[in-house]
Specification:
Elements: H1 11-42, H2 47-70, H3 76-93, H4 96-108, H5 112-138
Helix pairs in contact: 1-2, 1-3, 2-3, 2-4, 2-5, 4-5
């Protein structure tokens, strides 16, 4: 590996490391999401509630992590941890595409009660939990 004159890593190597951190975190997040959803289904809890739960927990954790990060001086290590946990793990643990698909499915089935419950619980719950996590993390 070639080191720049100022002792820093080249941009291409840094980009590779960042991509690997996000990928590693995402792999663990996806595996945990899969395990959690299957556990919910095992106890006859529908997958929409499992995804809602995971999305809200992830939102709180991301707010918490962002709150901690906001109170610290930015450095390469902190950025790496945020990529691994915040972008990779929590981004994969929560799943926007599944949330949107569940909303579409509820609309197509004309299940407006589930549609509005999922929509409002995700949006308002997500905002409240992200804010609460941020407040707790920032102090």
């Amino acid at each position: 590996m070639q080191v720049d004159v100022d002792g820093s890593m080249p941009e291409s190597f840094l980009a590779l490391i960042q991509s690997l951190l996000v990928s590693i975190g995402a792999g663990f997040g996806a595996c945990l999401r899969f395990k959690c959803v299957n556990t919910f289904l095992k106890y006859s809890i529908n997958s929409s509630l499992a995804i809602l739960f995971l999305n809200l927990i992830s939102t709180f954790a991301l707010g918490f992590l962002f709150g901690i990060r906001s109170g610290l001086v930015e450095n390469q290590f902190l950025s790496s941890i945020f990529l691994l946990i915040g972008v990779g793990f929590l981004g994969s643990l929560s799943t926007f595409s599944t949330f949107i698909f569940q909303l579409l499915q509820a609309l197509l089935e004309k299940d407006f009660k589930d549609f509005f419950f999922l929509l409002l619980a995700s949006l308002f719950g997500g905002i409240l939990l992200a804010a609460g996590g941020y407040k707790l993390g920032y102090g």
